[in-house]
Description:
This protein has one helix spanning 48-53, and strands at residues 6-17, 21-29, 36-44, 56-61, 68-73.
Amino acid sequence: MEKLKQTPGMTCKVITQDVQQGILEYTYLSPYCMRKSTVSSSVYLPDYERRDTGGFFNALVCSECGKTAAVHFWRTMKIN
């Protein structure tokens, strides 16, 4: 299995949230095509804490080139 390229995230925003899951929208600069990518994913109740504290990696598929990168969201980053 090929190792994923790593890159820092730019923004992480809560789109919807209820007691069971939330949908987050992420933006980052793809390390493959060097274009800004915006993708969304579901976060379930056990992972709510990571959403609030930051400091986590997500494997995200670029909306521009379709390649997967390991995107790091820093603990000090504000999540809207």
